Amino acid sequence: MTIVHLPRVDSTQSTIFDLAAQGASDRTVVVADYQAAGRGRRGRAWDAAPGTSLLTSILVRPRGTPERWGGYSLVSALAVADALARAASLSARLKWPNDVLVGDRKIAGILLESRMPAAGVAGPAGGPGVIAVGIGINLGQREFPASLAARATSVLRETERIVDRDAMLTALLEAFDGWRACLERDGLAPIRARWLVLADTIGRRVSVDGITGVAVDLDVDGALVLQDGERRHRIVAGEVGVL
Ligand code: BTN
User: Fold this and answer.
1) pLDDT above 90 for 124
2) pLDDT band at 128 (very low <50, low <70, confident <90, very high)
3) Where, residue-wise, is CATH 2.30.30 in the chain?
4) Which residues are paired to 228 by β-bridges?
5) What residue's CA is closest to ligand 1, atom 11?
6) How far is the CA of 59 from the centre of ligand 1 (A)?
7) Strands laid side by side in the 93-95 sheet
8) Among 31, 62, 70, 153, which lies 20 to 30 A Cα-Cα from 129?
């Protein structure tokens, strides 16, 4: 595993794709002190003052066809929950698909972006594509901007302790490797089972991009299952709002 520490980047996600295009190997990791253009899900920004967060991206050259890559999203969430438990003694819960919560506040965000090589061009390692697994864990924030204050938390706020960024990174990478190996060896079933144990979403009445129902299950492929009276909906992507 190669770990690249950088003081400042636009986004560790962009850096990973640049390195991937130059032939960087699977499990290359970028960690930045500051991102000038950090990316969140659904086109949002992800801002963190220097020194407050673990900001990292992991290069994954995935196994299997793109339809199966959703498993890496659940793997990432399990890894963050494990890292928070090991490095900060925090019990995190997961909001579908991969927000990491302590209480009802978000302590970490995960963004998976993928790129396929141009038609007919094999990836540098002969693989078919690249996933950048981007993870931001709030470590040392005492306060958040007003727009986030009710929804965000940090390790410092939850534990009154400073947890070293590199200690959290070590725990995260170890957990990620473990869950990833499990996915690639045994498939989604054990990942799904663990996700369900940590799930905050199941049992709640939610709305996802206009579809409303009670979240009752995670399907075998990782889709969220909503029950709305007699009807069942499978949600494969979207933003869960708890009602
Ligand atoms: C979310 O919206 O919840 C996902 C946030 C993901 C943020 C991380 S920080 C490191 C990596 N680089 C980015 O630009 N985004 C991800």
Assistant:
1) no
2) low
3) 205-242
4) 231
5) 134
6) 14
7) 3-9, 29-35, 53-60, 130-138, 105-115, 99-102, 93-95
8) 31
What the block records as the tokens of 104 is: 């009802």
Which residue's alpha carbon is at the smallest distance from atom 3 of ligand 1?
Answer: 109
With a cut of 90, say whether residue 68 has pLDDT above it: no
Q: Which of 16, 31, 55, 147 to mutate to test the pocket of ligand 1 (most atoms within 8 A of CB)?
A: 55
β-pair type (231-235, 224-228): antiparallel
Q: With 50 as the cut, is the pLDDT of residue 110 above it? A: yes
pLDDT at 31 over 80: yes
Nearest atom (ligand 1) to Cα of 32: 10
Is the confidence at residue 151, as pLDDT, over 50?
yes
205-242 CATH fold: SH3 type barrels. (2.30.30)
Ligand 1: residues within 6 Å at CB?
11-13, 35, 38-41, 44, 46, 55-57, 99, 109-111, 134-136
Query: What architecture is domain 3-198?
Result: 2-Layer Sandwich (3.30)
Distance 122 CA to ligand 1 centre (A): 28
Residue pLDDT, tens place only, 185-210: 999 999 999 999 999 999 999 999 99
Tokens linked to 4: 């690249």
What value does the mean pLDDT take over residues 16-43?
A: 96
- Locate the ligand 1 atom nearest the alpha carbon of residue 12 and give its number: 12
